Amino acid sequence: MDIALIANPGAGGSTDTDEVAVALRAHGAEIEHFSLDEDDLARAARSGAERVVVAGGDGSIGPAAVVAQALGVPLALIPTGTANDFARSQGIPLEIPRACALAMEGTRRQRMDLGRLSSGCAFVNVANTGISTSAAREAAPLKSVLGPVAYGVGALRAASNAKPIACRVSVDGREIFSAKSWQVIVGVTGAFGGGSELGSADPQDGQLDVAVLPAGSRVGLVRRAWGMRTGTICAQPDVVHERGREILLELPPGTELNVDGEVIPAGRPERATLEPGAFELVVP
After folding, report:
1. Which of the four CATH numbers 3.40.50.2300, 3.40.630.10, 3.40.1190.10, 3.40.50.10330 does domain 2-107 have?
2. Domain made up of 122-276: CATH architecture
3. For the whole model, what pTM was predicted?
4. Which terminus of the chain has a smaller tally of CB atoms within 10 A, N or C?
């Protein structure tokens, strides 16, 4: 089988491309290598591969899904990042040999929704802003030492010094929130932060979920953290939760987004939309 292997050597788990390639070839793969560079991704989308395999963390999956979508072929995942939230949410094996076997021999495919931002940036888990961006920056230098625990440490540090942000949130043209918030989460799978989740998001329902955590005391952030770790955050009575096909975020200048673990500047305004059933994922 002809494989377009898209790998991110910079992922938290330090992707060993050679190890992945050897494991894939053991199952009959003919491999062409690509990076996450924009030009390389464009070349991958013209490669004629029969299957796209991405080896990396959560931030690598959205761009690879766009390539698979363009080629009209399935996407398979070798999770080699730190959090691997997408893999966990979809039951993808975390061990490289097992993931490679599934990538090559898996016959079950699942249609998955794909989120898009104003910039065209694709995401599969969440795009969120507020305390989460501070947490991501705090966690980044700790990943190589602490692994997934770095996310918890980063969140604790962020909770001690981050400030709420003023925002206006609209869903399908209807304003649902206009005040200060600790965090705004727009979800496809809803999985993020090394084990946190919205709990209500479904990557096959054709809708984005948005949860707004209103500003309040720092002590109250403990309850927020518990809700995210247990997938019950949207059930907390003061959390604003809605679903829709288009989420508009009006944010202060200089605001950043945490998009599948990657921190990028937010658009002004930032518009998140959904492409239902955009790509096929190889699943167990």
Report:
1. 3.40.50.10330
2. Sandwich (2.60)
3. 0.92
4. C
Residue type, 137: R
Render pLDDT for 146-169 as a digit per residue (tens, 0 to 9).
777 777 776 777 777 888 999 999
Instruction: State how far the alpha carbon of 242 is from the alpha carbons of 113, 169, 176, 212, 280, in Å.
Output: 17, 10, 8, 9, 26
How is residue 15 written in tokens? 């992707």
Alpha carbon distance 167, 262 (integer Å):
21
- Tokens 């989308």, located at residue: 45
DSSP 3-60: EEEEE-TTSTT---HHHHHHHHHTTT-EEEEE-SSHHHHHHHTTS--SEEEEEE-HHH
The residue extents of the domains of the chain are: 2-107, 122-276
Q: Which residues, listed in sequence order, are joined to residue 171 by a DSSP beta bridge?
A: 174, 247
pLDDT, tens digit (0-9, with 9 covering 90-100), for 99-115: 999 999 999 999 999 99
Instruction: Examine residue 276 and say whether the peptide bond preceding it is cis (omega within 30 degrees of 0).
Output: no
